Amino acid sequence: MSFDAFAEFRMDGHTVIITGGAQNIGAGIARTLSGAGARVMIADRNGDMAHETAAKIARETGNDCRGMACDVTDAADIDVVVKETVAAFGGISTLVNNVGWGGRQPDPAAIPEDEFLASYKLNTISAYRMSMACLPWLEKAKNASITNSGSFSSAVPASDILPYATAKAALNQMMVSLAHMLARRVRVNSILIGTVITEGYASAGITPEMQERMMHPDNLIGHPGRPQDIANAMLWLCSPAASWVSGQTINVHGGGTVVRLFGS
Description:
Keywords: NADP, Oxidoreductase
CATH superfamily: NAD(P)-binding Rossmann-like Domain
Number of strands: 7
Low-confidence stretches: 259-264
GO molecular function, one term: cholate 7-alpha-dehydrogenase (NAD+) activity
Oligomer: single chain
Number of domains: 1
CATH class: Alpha Beta
Family: Belongs to the short-chain dehydrogenases/reductases (SDR) family.
Distance between the termini: 58 Å
Mean pLDDT: 91
Number of helices: 7
Protein name: 7-alpha-hydroxysteroid dehydrogenase
Largest sheet: 7 strands, parallel
Radius of gyration: 18 Å
InterPro entries: NAD(P)-bd_dom_sf, Sc_DH/Rdtase_CS, SDR_fam, Sec_Metab_Biosynth_SDR
Helix content: 40-55%
Strand content: 5-15%
CATH topology: Rossmann fold
């Protein structure tokens, strides 16, 4: 019998919830985990797109992938997603807190306090709520894990997107604290994502000119990432291949450092 070096990267038998999985990086993660054998529930504020993306992934991978509407800032919506996922698949073994968004505002004096609160609610509190809602099921699963889509902007000066970067920095602290609190029961990790060009940048106020500059970022590789680059790292952290990894932030950013993400 030949040795299969990729066997532990398989996700057969795992049930995954991915928030914000209808497009961009989240859709890439959903497709990759489904392709590795997982049953996937995409939870996204855009319910129609979640259904469309899930149906496309199911056709491509041949594995059960479903989508449903969910506003992760609404605790009731989170409870419904967990209930529907368990009803469809019999449990939950893997949670990917992928939701994240932040608008651009280079003038700190122009940022209202409410924008900080809204960013914290979307980027940080939603991950906590989803994690706690899934926890009773995760604790019953083998190789249970929670993995967050963090941001490299949380670890370097990010003056263009201060509320978002601040909320993602709080997510880093929550991750490592939960990893210790849930030790021996659930693995908890985060990926700090660098510059990945997606269609979502336009809605964050990133102009085509800024996106062109982002095609030549200050990193060691010399180009921005692809959603698949993040999905590959996510597969490792969610799969049995990372069964000895918890409480870690994994940098996937081309090996670079940035001071100003988008420029003025």
